[in-house]
Amino acid sequence: MFLTPSDRLSRIKPSPSSVARARVLELMQQGRQILDLTIGEPDFDTPGHVKAAGISAIERGDTKYTGAAGTIELRRAIAGKLERENGLRFEPAQIFVGAGAKQVLHNAFAATLNAGDEVIIPAPYWVSYPDMVLLSDGVPVVVPTSVDNSYKLTPSELEAAITPRTRWVILNSPNNPTGVSYTRAERRALADVILRHDGVWLITDDIYEHFHYDSGRSISPVEAAPELIDRTLIVNGVSKSYAMTGWRIGYGAGPAALINLMVTLQSQTTSCVSSISQAAAVQALNGPQDFVAQCVAEFKERRDLAMSILNTVHLLRCVTPSGAFYIFPSCAGVIGKRTPAGRVIETDFDFSMYLLEEVSVAVLDGAAYGMSPSIRLSFATSIDIVKTACLRIKEACEALT
Fold first, then answer.
1. Are 180 and 148 in contact (CB under 8 A)?
2. Range 7-45+291-398 has CATH code 3.30.70.1350
3. Residue ranges of the domains in the chain?
4. Which residues, at least 6 apart from 332, have a Cβ–Cβ distance to it below 8 Å?
5. For an engineered disulfide with 92, which of 64, 75, 221, 375 has Cβ 3.0 to 4.6 Å away?
């Protein structure tokens, strides 16, 4: 007899970005030269001093279980980072270490949601948010934003979405997939809405915090509204800023009562995160930070080059990303157009497949991010690939009739 999947699993689907990546790799293995703009991780190597810290942990025997919340050394390093960079004070007991920011988010939902509880998710959104909510018996309440407002949630849109069942609001800034960032004033205005509703908490996903290309820096909501700190979970990690995606270290900082719930869940699932990765993360946070600045400078150069080309494509409408390493063009202008082969482009998925098949450029369709018709391009790859791929996209658009 075939094993029947649980009802819980039937609510979710595989990550679209993982599926797309698998398809790109499959085509590459067949000999196709694909320019891959689906990548969601920095193309740089982990800094040498961070790798050395991991090797040193192995050599001195730091290869045992740690506490479920993470090592005290790492939680102190995280607390130090939050105070040094964000002006926020947390005790180690208010910090949780997970296997990437994704597990931190999952544990927060699994530890706090009951059937029917609602989580407000502005669209476009990171592909995993709705499925993680569904996996924890919650209800994702997707609130579409507008390209005319640079894909930012407004206070009135947030207010209209809140109901007595609302438990969480998720804000991701700089955003994946749009790259847009909220200003301090915009964050304050959204925080004021949440503060008017006692039972509503905020998750601020700050994983792209350091990838900020305009003046100033990315501001956390609790910096803009300190009185919200008792109802906020800050989610971050070392994956993006230090090119450590495979090390799987994310963290959450919030009220101790919430952190304790997440730790209890962790104690009965993964037990803890790799002790070796935790040692490396301590060095990433406490060590030299010049690597981060170098990465940001290179990403800004790539962004500027990509935008200089894409802004000349009249069928696409782009909002200049102020952070992260993604561009999210609206492709409404290509819908209904015909390819040179005579096929009609009816959806953004059709357009992404057209780019893949005709000019060997891999992008992700906006439907995966809750906003169609759009595509997501990542510039977390070499500047030569970024330039060539954007020129090919322009060529492909000009070939439509």
1. no
2. no
3. 7-45+291-398, 63-286
4. 317, 373
5. 75
ω into 124 cis (within 30 of 0): yes
- Length of the chain, in residues: 401
By the 8 A CB rule, do 145 and 163 touch?
A: no
Report the predicted TM-score, pTM, of the whole model to 2 decimal places. 0.94
Exposed / middle / buried, residue 252 (Cβ in 10 Å: 0-12, 13-18, 19+):
buried
Contacts of 295 (CB under 8 A, 6+ apart): 42, 44, 211, 241, 243
> For residues 303 and 398, what is the distance between their CA atoms, to the nearest angstrom?
22
Do residues 223 and 88 lie in contact, with contact meaning Cβ atoms separated by under 8 Å? yes
CB 388 within 8 A of CB 35: yes
Domain 63-286 annotated CATH 3.30.70.990: no
Write the CA distances from 100 to 146, 273, 299, integer angstroms.
30, 9, 22
What are the CA-CA distances from residue 96 to residues 103, 255, 266, 351 (Å)? 10, 11, 10, 41
Helix ranges (DSSP H) in 200-247: 221-224
Strand order in the sheet with 250-253: 95-98, 250-253, 232-237, 201-205, 166-172, 118-123, 139-144
Question: Can you tell me the mean pLDDT for 87-95?
Answer: 97
pLDDT tens across 327-365, in order?
999 999 999 999 999 999 999 999 999 999 899 999 999
Render pLDDT for 103-117 as a digit per residue (tens, 0 to 9).
999 999 999 999 999
Q: Which two tokens stand for residue 368?
A: 């995966």
Q: Looking at per-residue confidence, does 353 or 3 come out higher?
A: 353
- Cis check for the bond before 226: say yes or no (omega within 30 of 0): no
What letter represents residue 282's amino acid? V
Percent of the chain's residues with pLDDT above 70: 98
Smallest CA-to-CA distance from 81 within 105, 97, 65, 58 is with 97
Query: Structure tokens of 371?
Result: 């906003």
Tell me if 7-45+291-398 shares its fold with 63-286.
no
Angle, CA 157 vertex, CA 152 and CA 162 arms, to 5°: 125
Q: What is the pLDDT of residue 18?
A: 66
E strand or H helix at 17 = helix 16-29
For 309: left if phi > 0, alpha if psi spans -120 to 50, otherwise beta; the answer is alpha
What number of helices (H) and strands (E) belong to the chain?
14, 12
